[in-house]
Design brief:
24% helix; 2 domains; alpha+beta; nine-stranded mixed beta sheet; binds pyridoxal-5'-phosphate; D-amino Acid Aminotransferase, Chain A, domain 2; D-amino Acid Aminotransferase, Chain A, domain 1; single chain
């Protein structure tokens, strides 16, 4: 049975006030949001409402103990104005892995997918149409008990809201290999999108920025000898025409962009190595001119080229991909699939 959603539409759309050619990422939210409450052991109050502020008690448990998780995915529109969501079931699965680790209730697939598709249907005029543009979708959940005891909340709120996004035209990133702080450790929460992972990364990232870098290249928490992730993106190196990326583990977020790229690379029969990647091996490849490209991969930017890596007070320049490089080919292929220009062989798109 389809869950029933109470729908209240806005009488004052803000759509006409938005300049879609110059959107500041994450600043503007579409007209509506979806919400559901977990109480007495079940999800209820499914509703779509005009976007508005929440009212919370100062004792709201998530604010104190961090039971808060999120996802980030995107909707696209093609030139025929059909709207698509990219890999929502994979985002749902990862959301529920995060929920489990954070001792939060999982969200049933019908609540997530029904809420998501209904919301995107209602706000589909907010999906920009220009190549590279998208509607960023932010599902999240947090503990809402009004209680100061340090224990799992018994009530939760699940929300989905959206925000139109222009493509990230990034200058190539300068990234610092982090050898003091850690993002994730074995037995921890590195594989989840829990709020605390990001809060804990801000300070070391700010230090790297003071030194002139844009991002941190996280390494393993024991020895700081192996590469893990680039900021909030997975990382791929092209060395000797081989795509090399750290193998998934408890300390690495299982990126859906990473998976999409590896899936296409396998389809194209390119050599791929998913394994532990030593910093020393990357530095050696750079100095021997065998490193062809390095880039971060994630939903927000899809591909963020890396132009320089800093390691132990030395900066190493990296070639940035040109039109025929792997990163640019993969970007074009993904863009074509998302906009329905190329066959969606892997059933990644859900049509609204
Ligand atoms: C979200 C995220 C990624 C990228 O995941 P996608 O599913 O590709 O968006 C990678 N690393 C971290 C730490 C993340 O939070």
């Amino acid at each position: 049975m389809k869950p029933s959603i109470l729908i209240e539409k806005t009488t004052q759309s803000r759509l006409g006030t938005v300049d879609f050619s110059a959107i500041k990422f994450g600043k503007i939210c579409a007209d509506h949001f979806f919400s559901a409450d977990f109480q007495n052991g079940k999800w209820e109050n499914l509703q779509i409402s005009p976007y508005k502020n929440l009212s919370l008690s100062p004792a709201t448990s998530a604010l104190h103990y961090g039971q808060s998780i999120f996802e980030g995915m995107k909707a696209y529109r093609n030139e025929h104005h059909d709207a698509f969501i990219f890999r929502p079931y994979d985002h749902l699965q990862r959301f529920n892995r995060s929920a489990k680790r954070m001792c939060m209730p999982e969200i049933p697939a019908d609540v997530f997918i029904q809420g998501l598709t209904e919301l995107i249907r209602i706000d589909q005029s907010w999906i920009p149409t220009k190549l590279g543009d998208s509607l960023y979708i932010r599902p999240f959940m947090f503990g809402t008990d009004e209680f100061l005891g340090a224990r799992p909340s018994e009530s939760y709120k699940f929300i989905i809201f959206t925000s139109p996004a222009n493509p990230y035209y990034l200058q190539p990133m300068n990234i610092k290999i982090e050898t003091q702080y850690a993002r994730a450790t074995e037995g921890g929460t590195g594989f989840t999108k829990c709020a605390g992972n990001y809060g804990a990364a801000f300070y070391p990232t700010a230090l790297a920025m003071q030194e002139g870098y844009h991002q941190i290249l996280w390494t393993d928490s024991h020895e700081h000898l192996y590469v893990e992730e680039a900021g909030t993106m997975n990382i791929i190196f092209v060395i000797d025409d081989i795509l090399i990326t750290p193998a998934l583990s408890e300390t690495i977020l299982q990126g859906i962009t990473r998976d999409s790229i590896l899936t296409l690379a396998k389809e194209w029969k390119l050599p791929i190595e998913e394994r532990k990647v030593k910093i020393s091996e990357v530095i050696k490849a750079i100095t021997e001119n065998r490193l062809q490209e390095a880039f971060g991969v994630g939903t927000a930017a899809t591909i963020a080229p890396i132009g320089m890596i800093g390691y132990k007070n030395e900066n190493y320049t990296i070639p940035v991909g040109n039109i025929s490089s792997f990163s640019q080919k993969i970007l074009a292929a993904l863009e074509n699939i998302r906009r329905g220009k190329e066959q969606d062989k892997f059933n990644w798109l859900i049509k609204i």
